[in-house]
Amino acid sequence: MSRIGKLPVVLPAKVEAKITGNTIQVKGEKGSLDFAFSDKVEVTMEDNSVVVSPKSDEAKALWGTTRSVISNMVLGVSEGYKKSLEINGVGYKFELQGAKLILSIWFSHKVEMEIPEGISLAMDEKLKNVIHVSWIDKQRVGQFASKIKAKKKPEPYKGKGIKYQGEHIRRKAGKTGSK
Questions:
Q1: Using one digit for the tens of pLDDT, what is the confidence trace for 5-27?
Q2: Which of 12, 45, 78 is the last residue in one of the domains?
Q3: pLDDT digits (tens, 9 = 90+) for 92-114
Q4: What pTM does this model have?
Q5: 117 and 70 Cβ atoms separated by less than 8 Å
Q6: Residue range 134-161, pLDDT digits in tens
Q7: Phi/psi at 46 (nearest 5 deg)?
Q8: Do the Cβ atoms of 63 and 41 come closer than 8 Å?
Q9: How many other C-beta atoms are found inside a 10 Å radius of the C-beta of residue 131?
Q10: DSSP state of 108
Q11: Cα of 91 vs its chain's centroid, Å
């Protein structure tokens, strides 16, 4: 039995949810999101909260997942999501030019990435090597941040590359000379 699925999703003050058939639309200060849930679960409004319940024993696998997605939508439209990426290495840097992110990561060329619609990128004011990816959709923020990181993953010897801010890179000892 799902412990997460049992919990109702409480809607904050300025957030509205509307259920139409098998879709739920959540509107808040920062925007609105839609989610088409399975017909094996039942989503209902009770007071100022959204309750998810399974229709059969087979639906228990979708029960907690559906509740978590709706909870993430509510949090996204009220507060938003943000991931911070840090770039380390001599000559490694981020640049923003209009709707493109340009990475200088020690390739023979600069790597250009199109910024998806809705996602906003911002350079950190204090640290030159940090960039913030933010929007209301948790899945798309994480996916785009992951695509940026995948362009140059941090290597284990010197730690050069792109990593999440606060992520610990496990370091290896380099070669030692023969005696």
A1: 899 999 999 999 999 999 999 99
A2: 78
A3: 999 999 999 999 998 999 999 99
A4: 0.89
A5: no
A6: 999 999 999 999 999 999 999 999 999 9
A7: -135, 120
A8: yes
A9: 25
A10: S
A11: 27
- The answer to whether residue 127 sits within a structural domain is yes
Token look-up 């209902």 returns 44
For residue 34, is pLDDT > 70? yes
For the chain, state the CA radius of gyration. Answer: 21
CA distance 122 to 131: 6
Taking the C-alpha atoms of residue 37 and residue 111, their distance in angstroms, rounded to an integer, is 37
CATH, residue 22: 3.90.930.12
The first and second tokens of residue 77, run together, are 């439209």
Retrieve residue 174's tokens: 């380099």
Choose the final residue of a domain: 78, 106, 127: 78
Residue closest to 97 by CA, chosen among 108, 81, 111: 111
